[in-house]
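Subject: mismatched residue count in predicted assembly?

I count 544 residues in my input, but I want to confirm that the predicted structure covers every chain. Input:
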Amino acid sequence: MMKPCPVRHAINRENAFTDDSATSDGIDGIFGNRNAMPLFNLAWNYDERFAWDGKELSLERQALEPVQNPIEMHSDWDDVVAKLATHPEYPKLFRLAFKTTTITKELTTKALAQFERTLISANSKFDKFSLGETTLTPQEQNGLAVFLDESRGDCFHCHGNPNNPLWTDNLFHNNGLDANFSDLGLGRVTGDPNDNGKFKSPSLRNLAFTAPYMHDGRFETLDAVIDFYSEGLQNSPTIDPLMKKVEDGGVQLSNQDKADLKAFLLSLSDPSFLTNPDFQN
Amino acid sequence: MPKIFTLFMISILLLYSCSEDRDDNLTLQTDAKTTFSFTHYWDDTQITSSDFNTIQYTNANGETLSIETLRYLISDVTFTKENGEKIVIEGYNLVNLKTDTNLTYSPLDNIPLGTYTNVSFTFGFDAEDNIDGAYLDLNSESWAVPNTPMLGSVGGYHYMQLEGKFTNSTTPETGYAYHVIRAADGNTNPPTIEETFIEVDLGPITIERDINFEIKMNIAEWFKNTFQWDLTVWNTMLMPNFQAQLKMNQNGQNVFSLGAVTQ
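Triage response: the counts match. Full output below for your records.
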């Protein structure tokens, strides 16, 4: 009944509640143009703008959209609510949760959103390091130094730091992917050309499980992502001022720094999140 | 007729009584709510977020530039009494002109009415308050300074993030990130740390009732007085640039001024 959500997020717990496709197919086998974002730590997205382009202004509102989207579920809420109402289990579950067996789309999206808020990932190797429970390897330590060095990785301005373990600023940036935009991103939502080519900074947690990367899933590996930031930047009018040495394609990291940065990034992955029994049917 | 007269008298008594009650409850205002409103200028031209993203300002060095981001932090608003006693309002306000957030700041604590020889605030955090990781809301704003040896292993927080693009006759449009932090040189042993927060004095004030202070920032000052900033030389990667941070502190001394005061 609800193919896209399970296919794109829930069935693939091993992908941190995303899928492994560059873009995702819906109920009719048609592919969209965006990579499905993984789902975790969403409760701390304080400005409540969700999706790559920020078009969804709360988790509840976000949950409304896929049902009606012709590429995703290609259905309507009346149909979904009717199916839930005749399901052998859901009316009872709604009564337990909401003290009513009258199922509505509003209650359904509340339930979905509240479940999403419970998807908390906080048990990576780096989390344990922050708690003093383990140590980083020298390679991971140097990778962190690259990450925090404004003249090398300078990842921290958009992707957090040990004091911001969400590993995202939850804001929108043009990170230099394209000189010309086939997808306007935030600009399509706001209508402001100054926002063209800007997309949400994704969290760097669980990168080990969430390939491919970027809003369109263009990079299949972390190595390709790091190469892009090092020497593949494309200039455009809205490129973020934090993207340095654009004329050279980027900051030209050494091979050692690239390898170390990758090792550090992988330390942000949380395997226990994938096996948490609370997230299983 | 007697009934009408009686009702009239009762009404008069009630009105009189109510009036007396109000008088009894009157209390003299002894303190005032203070509000600080932050406005922004390029010399005499006011800047709002609607002016962002367009290259239209010329700095002292002749580069033209745009503004895409302006965030800065002020803390510890202080009122100095005539006897020298200071009333410090502990707290901070992160102004974000890009999103028009926190353009007014109203501390929870009221201030006693009276004459003060100075009103001041700290641009950034002073050494006592600039504690690595201490403020959860600022942490999630990605406002932290990395706690790394290169930056003196002291961490803490940004004081300002001013970003945009600049160009001149020989330089194509290029990004700049004028980030002000505590100056630290991690290349010396031990690291050289220099506190570069700025105490901004607004001057004397007599507070008679609730009051609003307009705090004006002249952004052009960051580039001209007393150091003529060359964006072609210093545009990005300025956080670990100890000398650049000292020059920012130098230029920041005259950035703020007191605008309209209303009470």
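Residues 2-25 of chain B form the longest helix (24 residues). Marking this ticket as 'not a bug'.
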